[in-house]
Design brief:
heterotrimer, A alpha/beta, B mainly alpha, C mainly alpha, B: mainly alpha, 16 helices, 2 strands, C: mainly alpha, 11 helices, about 75% helix, globular
Amino acid sequence: MSKRNSFVTTAPRLAAFTGLCLILAAGCGNKKKEGDPGSPGSSAAGDKAGGDKAGGDSAMPGVTATEIKIGQSMPYSGPASAYGVIGKSEAAYFKMINDKGGINGRKVNLISLDDAYNPAKAVEQTRKLVENEGVAFIFGSVGTANNTAIQKYLNDKKVPQLFIATGADKWADPTNNPWTIGWQPSYRTEAKIYARYVLKEKPGAKMCVLYQNDDFGKDYLTGLKDGLADQYDKIVIKTASYETSDPTIDSQIVTLQGAGCDTLLTAATPKFGAQAIRKVADLGWKPMHFVSNVSVSLAAVLKPAGLDKSTGIITGQYLKDPNDPKAANDPGINEYKAFIKDHLSDVDPNDGNALYGFSVSGSLVKLLTACGNDLSRANIMKQAAAIQKQVVNTLVDGIEINTAANDFRPISQMRLAKFNGTSFEPMGDLISAD
Amino acid sequence: MTMVSATADIASAPARRISGRRLWLAALLVFAVVVPLVSSGYHVFQLTQIVMYAIAILGLNLLTGYSGQISLGNGSFYALGAYTAAILMTNAKLPYWATPPIAGAVCFVAGLAFGRSVTRLEGLYLALATYALGVATPQILKLDVLERWTGGNQGVVLSKPTSPFPSLLNDDQWLYFFCLGAAVILFIVAWNIVRGRTGRALIALRNHPIAAGTMGIPVAAYKSATFGLSAMYTGVAGALGALIAGFVGPDSFQIILSIGFLVGGVVGGIASIFGVLFGAAFIELVPDLTKQVSEMSPSLRWLAELQYPAYGVLLIATMLLMPGGMAGLVRSVELRIARHLHHPPRT
Amino acid sequence: MQAFLHQLLSGLANGSIYASVALALVMIFKATHHVNFAQGELAMFSTYVAYTLIHAGVPYWGAFVITLVFSFAIGVAIERLLLRRLRHASALTVVIVFIGLLVIFNGLAGPLFGFTIKEFPTPFAPNASYGSTYLSPHEVGMIGVTLIVLAIVFAFFRFTRLGLAMRASAENPQSSRLVGIRVGWMLALGWGLASVLGAIAGMMAAPSVFLEPNMMVGIVLYGFAAALLGGIDNPWGAPIGGFIVGVLENLAGAYVVGSHLKLALALAVIVAVVVFKPSGLFGRTVVVRV
């Protein structure tokens, strides 16, 4: 017992030792900042501005004559690690761009840090990016909670939070958060499109909803309410939720089938989307089955669930399907496949996350090119809110990215498509939710 | 090392030891006060996190290291503290500085209640129960019935504390000193508890619960009180963590958080007060350092990917090779040096 | 009524997985009085080994057997190399080592095998005659495998000399040593067998929940609940606990508490059992000797 006590008596030394380690660690970190503006060594105007002072001293934080430094935090570890592929794909994309000479002569330096899908960690990493690394802006961080956690900080600091990888609807709020903008169509928009389809094609539908019990899943409910309006209570007769920690969702599907629905919306992430598709088929239940866009990847969902069991599901698409035989000669998809082969060979080209990363990076490069030589944060944000008819060739043909000062929804069109056992067949034209 | 030799060691040179200790403590305090004044915002933020983690790990050490009750779910109390602070600030409009004490009190009560119901449990069962609690925490936070207060999965965004002396300290520095103040108070309290009668009773019931009971130590009361105390420390840390991040949401409180506390506690020394500083610095800084090292050369790239397995290896290696953690290591090195210098007679 | 029957059967199917996990936990508890927190992660890792083999062209049952051998070896290795050194260590030390193992296996799986879900084949033909809309052939097979494994475990301990020796060393190591049983190896054997049981649970679960690094995190929690409910030192109680938990989870989720509280239900079972009846429904109450 006195052994413990003697720990205590000598422990302050240990603590001081810890302190020493801290100083060393801080020292390492500080080295990066030796080029602060004002110090003799700094090169181009505003070069390597240490964030805090960046706003005052430099018009273009994170930007030099040869480089534009941007940052993001990604779930490379933790429960959502599957999304880490997005970050890998984006890093590889910018490397490819840099190999080709960069954007207006500047190379893109993407600093991608791990946040383990933990909002508190995302705050820490974002502060590191802004204050220590002095990035020009934050690009494409993943996760609704994580982006919510950093939104206030970034807006207070007037640092653009660009093209974030979440489909929550709340990002389109230029009045309160003028420095935050999403990219993909929102989950709510998607659900609204399904609702309209049901109203038009199957007016007397009895609809069930299986949703993930978080804001992702609940956005679909909100979208259905928007789209079905006063019909909602009549059409949606039963909903069931699941938690990501549930081993299976069989029980929920059984409950929904028991309610007597002829239409089902599954708002689920890939693992549970695949489980739902399979269980519905195993039950011999044949509802009109809408599956959320995040869970229709051929490689990650439909194949594991069984292609025959997946036949007939309907989804809203905005990205092309790399596996579609009709896309074999599509220039966008070919470019994407060549990119995977040359720069990201350890990733399955059918992984929807890789295609997403490729596409959103392409969109960003177009935006930065449009900014010309004025890469100040204000101008980047101004340009992000004034995108006109931008076309990214891995998006479904016909989709244009448009934004305006009062419209922070870059992609708001989708196309319904039905799975025929090998690929998705378009059902009609593009639908805009607005 | 035996009990006798250690006691003799302390008794033999009390004056020198105490002055030495004071010197080190003073150095530490100077460091803690000066460095944040000259560091950049992000580094102050990191230091603030370390101070906050130190409080949380201290809570775990009091429980697990001193009273021998294994908790794999202290993240739950951390979450409770964080949400208490968030709800008080947004719903009851309380000022931020009032929230850590209240969060501590709430967690104390919760910990006491939990501790009371589990006092009869042996180590393993307790570990199981707390592990389950830790895993289920994010789900409990998402419950619909609580959504009015917790914000469900959306969480709650908090406005960050602002400095009352903006010309002296910026907001980050102010928050740092606010946390430091809380930490100093809590460390002094812990120090006194551990060194006094209570501490000896705790250690006795850790090392031999049944014997401790027969010696007249009220085992159940002590155990549940320690649970309350530990929850209080962890809850205060949670409240501070909420202020530091400016956000609370269920995803912040995954089981990996509890495991992180355990890593910090074990690496620093699970039965030590000041070892927690090392443990806290470890869990805050090592992930970043690993990433930096891994980027030095392509041949080190795997380091970043294997950070979690490395944690596991470290946990096991620490338990096998230096169960006292860093505190134990420093202590034994010191003893060796002292022996070498003075050749004291063996007692 | 039909829906109720369906929930019940589907609960039994899930329960059979929990039963295997619980049996594995009991196996280790009986032999060493430890609760293996890493049981689930070990099972997940073994399942990845099977997956890799199958994708390398090994036929299913071949991969199945190789995986069991591999799991057995890992289990024995962990006991011989790691836990042997901790024979006299405190519960705390052992728990921390298990958490370390959990973190290692969970952390290795992602970088090694990827994070996207993998389809794991089932050995049971998809249109076999024993399938129905209530239970898919795989679910029927899964329950069958669990029952067969239970029977084998029972026969092993009841009718073989080795099984008897293992029981003896768990009950009374000193006397066993005196009659010439190599107690150390018996403990290692217990670990190996537990690891094999875990691997079977993993390979049976994977076709229905899909293989990914966090596959077992939820399942193992139900396994804990099952083992505690049935009595963690009772090889018969624990699997029964597994089936009870599986059914309870489904019925309560569908009719009582709602599906978002299912995991909390496992937590409630664990806490209720450890607080009110630590020996479980079928376990023995142990009196500690001072």
